[in-house]
Amino acid sequence: MVNVTEVLKRLVIGRARRSEELGETLLPKRLALPIFASDPLSSVAYATQEILLVLTLGGLAYLHFTPWIAAAVVALMTVVVLSYRQVVHAYPSGGGSYEVASTNLGPSAGLVVAASLLVDYVMTVAVSVASGVDNIISAVPALVDYRVLMALIFVALLTAINLRGVRESGQAFAAPTYLFIGGVLIMVGTGLFRYLMGDAPVAESAAYGVNAAPGDANLAGLALVMLVLRAFSSGCTALTGVEAISNGVPAFRKPKSQNAATTMAAMGIIAITMFVGVTTLAIVAKVHITDDSCRLTGLTDCEGYTQRTVIAQLAASVFGGENSVGFYFIQAATALVLVLAANTAFNGFPLLASILAQHRYLPRQLHNRGDRLAFSNGILALAVVAGLLLWGYKANVTSLIHLYILGVFTSFTLSQTGMVRHWNRELRTERNHTVRRRHQLARIINATGAVITCLVLVIVLATKFTEGAWLAVLAAIVLFVMMRGIRRHYDTVAAELAVTDPRSEMVRPSRVLAIVLVSTIHKPTLRALAYARAFRPDHLEALTVAVDRDASTALQQQWERYEIPVPLTVLDSPYREITGSVVGYVRSIRRDSPRDVVAVFIPEYVVGHWWENVLHNQSALWLKSRLLFTPGVMVISVPWQLSSSARADHPAARAPGSVRRGEPTTAPKSSDLSTHE
């Protein structure tokens, strides 16, 4: 019989891969760039817009700060890229900022970085997808009512593609990323060429004035400084995802560190070129964009006016209007690459979560690879949390952006500080003058990066905290505390399970007392009795609970008639309660014989259809959960496969790596006390 679930799974994620095929999933640089750098590359589509949105709070008078703010962002990106190239070479194992901070600043600093990055990865998915949907709506305004639905569909598609494996997602995302890069560079080149020829492109919003937001007119002194700093912190969204390459070094082909460093350099050059080009073109075309369209002057109906994104206005002005081929190409490429920019997080989050799980800071399941050798559990966890954020914030970029970039600058600051300590340690032992000069230069780069990113972190906290960034801080704190708690639990369990004296741990119990649970005589009951007898316990009895006196009497008579060579014990239960009676009886045996072990055999059904679970009660599951908390009690399930479960034993339906020999290898799909139908 065909396993429908298995067929659908294979259609979505493809055939399972063997562990030996892991080497085939390693990435060349041309695929690694769109996989790990799609976030910083795509941020070009909204980084300039975020700067303009903040500056226009004071009206048009403050737009002259735009080039200076953009220059500061470019300088910061240059320093960060150079700094992370040092990380890639020094720590090629893939821990990135987390490993640097943990090794050089201690476990607590490493956890702060990890918590910040995990939160930031979630925000990357939410902001990228929401921004992509915004650009689709800019091209097709009629879709505005389907904003949240489109965002959730995109998250689901990204999840499915990433579950197919890292290499497959790279092949799927490479073309859109390179089309976006090419499209933006052509748009910028064309627009600037027209400007030099005296035919500068003019944005559709150039004719509109901008009223200052209430309380932001005629800013001076500290208020003006805060406005500029706020615009700078918003423009720093261009740096999100820069560290993803340092986390993904193990996914590169050999030489891993060199290829990762080259890819990071290429990412920095391309991202800076596009950001500078888009910002320059926005200034030339006089793009005016506000947080509220009714602050634009000269509109006849501000309520019904939908502002296009900066990238959309530039495409329309350069290529000849909103109906031109160039406009739709840029919009399609931008929307697609913004959605696919979330792929940076879909690679970074599972990798980091896997390392944290390996270090016992997150559940161990996050360290497991799925059928396609991707960290499937991490991918699914990221998709669920990001989907909830998009739903809760209605996929609104302006609302989500305030939760963004805080985590990434926390990791930047701590990792660069850790790298300074790393180079200090290396210089204490290095005697080769050439190598020492190289280390000293690297230390200067990392020290500069640490100082600058720390200042940006302070600016981001000061300007965004009350606007929603406090929620990201709270989430990182909760995650930090949770990871500490998980590590403490794993350490406690490991200490408790550690073997101190093998001989004392292997002392045989005085006796083994076996109990088989029954309430009627049928094949599962007889199998459980035969299985229990094969163990040759010191004492064996069958146990039934008399919830119905007539049925209990009939069972006893049938027991004697069949001459079953096992004594039958009947427990009276005037309130028709089974679990409590059995547990109480087993505990009484333990009290009377504390040095003995009690083995409880439970017949169970194995069903093959999900709906059959509804038709059987869960007495065995509940009973086992109670007995497992009783010291000295062993619970043994004796499965009986119903005919419907035959398909579950088919090799095609088994998960890769499962045991494939013998009847007992089929795990029960539903546990039920076989005697209580």
Q: Which terms summarize this structure?
A:
677 residues, alpha/beta, 5-stranded parallel β-sheet, two-stranded antiparallel ribbon, 23 helices, 60% helix, disordered C terminus
Based on helices, strands and strand pairing, what is the structural class? alpha/beta
Mean pLDDT: 81
Total beta-strand segments:
7
Assign a percent range to the helix content: 55-70%
H/E topology pattern: HHHHHHHHEHHHEHHHHHHHHEHEHEHEHE
Compute the gyration radius: what is it?
Answer: 32 Å
| Strands in their spatial order, largest beta sheet | 5-4-3-6-7
Which of globular, elongated, flat, extended, rod-shaped describes the shape?
elongated
Count of helices?
23
In this structure, how is the largest beta sheet organized? 5 strands, parallel
Q: What low-confidence regions span 5 or more consecutive residues with pLDDT below 50?
A: 18-23, 649-677
Distance between the termini: 27 Å
Q: Tell me the strand percentage band.
A: 5-15%
Q: Quaternary state, please? A: single chain
What can be said about this structure in brief?
60% of the residues lie in helices and 6% in strands. The protein has 677 residues and is of the alpha/beta class. The chain is elongated and about 110 Å long.
